[in-house]
Design goal:
By secondary structure, the protein is α+β, with helices and mostly antiparallel strands. Helix content is 43%, strand content 17%. It contains 5 helices and 3 strands; from the N terminus they run αβααββαα.
Length: 109
């Protein structure tokens, strides 16, 4: 019965939808960020691989498993990071080549 209770207590799951382009920043260099999140929360976090196909909006699902508290903490952190990433706006400006030296400066200063 104690084994059954342990399985029940550790069987909470959740998913978080993130942009596929955000996966490298969530994982971090050599997996440091994801390892830190796993250590801080104690949850098992399954990140989609490179071959996983995103949905039509370009998002993938991160799966979280663990105790109720672990799952809630990991989900909250991932959702917060996802919102920050989604709020970033990128704009591209075409600049005539003759102005590049003025904008960049000598030696890239």
């Amino acid at each position: 019965l104690s084994l059954l209770q342990w399985v029940i207590d550790h069987s909470y799951t959740a998913t978080v939808s993130v942009a596929q382009a955000q996966i490298p920043s969530l994982i971090g260099q050599r997996g440091r960020e994801m390892d830190k999140l796993r250590a801080d929360t104690g949850a098992q976090i399954d990140v989609p691989g490179v071959n996983d196909v995103p949905d039509e909006s370009g998002r993938v699902q991160i799966k979280i498993r663990g105790t109720k508290k672990q799952v809630e903490e990991a989900k909250k952190t991932l959702e917060q990071r996802s919102k920050e990433f989604d709020s970033i706006v990128t704009k591209t400006i075409d600049v005539d080549k003759k102005y590049h030296k003025s904008l960049i400066g000598g030696g890239g200063e």
